[in-house]
């Protein structure tokens, strides 16, 4: 019986096929699945990069509005200057301009505004930001506005209570 078992075992081993690896169909299925996942994930990843860059402008515009409020509270006028460094120096703030350029138009006695525009918004996928603060009757009103698309240029702020066309107010 032992030899008969050995013979059958040897026959079984000879008839058994060895695994030869993956078939071409299996490899194609894996490549297609990876391609679909990459096509879905890549645009989402790039959008997150743009949102992270936009946080620079949101923080800068909000900081400028708050600094203008403090300046006005002490001096009864908003800080104005011929250039961005002069205004930032008057306000006592330092805003890094890595992705955005900032403009501080001449402030009036009742309204101060700031504009943040990405120098390469089409490539970075970032939007423009505008902010304004106004003072009147002992009260301050301020607004930070976000452009609706990356192609929207900054718009002139006429009031600190509403945003221009193609802009939405941030909360």
Automatic annotation (TrEMBL):
<dbReference type="Pfam" id="PF07963">
    <property type="entry name" value="N_methyl"/>
</dbReference>
<keyword id="KW-0472">Membrane</keyword>
<keyword id="KW-0812">Transmembrane</keyword>
<protein>
    <recommendedName>
        <fullName>Pili assembly chaperone</fullName>
    </recommendedName>
</protein>
<dbReference type="Pfam" id="PF16734">
    <property type="entry name" value="Pilin_GH"/>
</dbReference>
<keyword id="KW-1133">Transmembrane helix</keyword>
<keyword id="KW-0488">Methylation</keyword>
<dbReference type="GO" id="GO:0016020">
    <property type="term" value="C:membrane"/>
</dbReference>
<dbReference type="InterPro" id="IPR045584">
    <property type="entry name" value="Pilin-like"/>
</dbReference>
<dbReference type="InterPro" id="IPR031975">
    <property type="entry name" value="Pilin_GH"/>
</dbReference>
<feature type="transmembrane region" description="Helical">
    <location>
        <begin position="21"/>
        <end position="42"/>
    </location>
</feature>
<dbReference type="InterPro" id="IPR012902">
    <property type="entry name" value="N_methyl_site"/>
</dbReference>
